[in-house]
Amino acid sequence: MNIFRYFSKTPSAPAARERLQVLLAHERVSAGESDLVTKLRDEIMAVISKHMKIDQDKVSVKMERGAQVSTLAVDVEIPFDAGKKKKAA
Question: The pTM is what?
Answer without folding.
Answer: 0.49
